[in-house]
Amino acid sequence: MDRVALRGLKARGHHGVFPKEREEGQTFIVDLTLAIDTRAAAADDDLTKTVHYGVVAEEVVDVVQGEPVDLIETLAERIAQQCLKHPGVQEVEVVVHKPDAPITVPFDDVTVTITRSRA
Judging by DSSP bridges, how do beta strands 111-117 and 26-36 pair with one another? Predict the structure, then answer.
């Protein structure tokens, strides 16, 4: 499988278990790696034979901005399932970053990484 990657998609969401997270929201950053066979698209130079990463990016932002969930694990799962709706996508790796997580000690980032496929 070939890979199409999107890095650093940013959106504001209201996810988290604490009331302040739900009320104020925070920025989430998403990295995606989509596994897809790009040979047909490359041979014909045809966008319809691959995944339109601009559309995927908009859909991911919609998920982040959408219905709040408690866990970023749940958010990652929703993003993965949205990506797998595209016919050519055989597998997706999703990394959700929560750089403003409510942690009381100094830290750079919190991430959850999942991989889902058409099983």
Answer: unpaired
Q: Cβ–Cβ contacts within 10 Å for residue 118, how many?
A: 10
Tokens of 70: 């408690």
Q: Give pLDDT tens digits for 94-115.
A: 999 999 999 999 999 999 999 9
Amino acid at 42: A
Global pTM reads 0.96
Residue 107 DSSP symbol: -
Structure tokens given for 96: 């959700």
Establish whether 98 is a catalytic residue.
Answer: yes
Between CA 26 and CA 57 the distance in angstroms is 18
Measured CA distances, 104 to 34, 72, 77, 101, 107 (Å): 34, 18, 27, 9, 9
Q: Using the 8-state DSSP alphabet, how is residue 5 labeled?
A: E
Which of 10, 49, 85, 98 is labelled catalytic? 98
- Token look-up 């966008």 returns 47
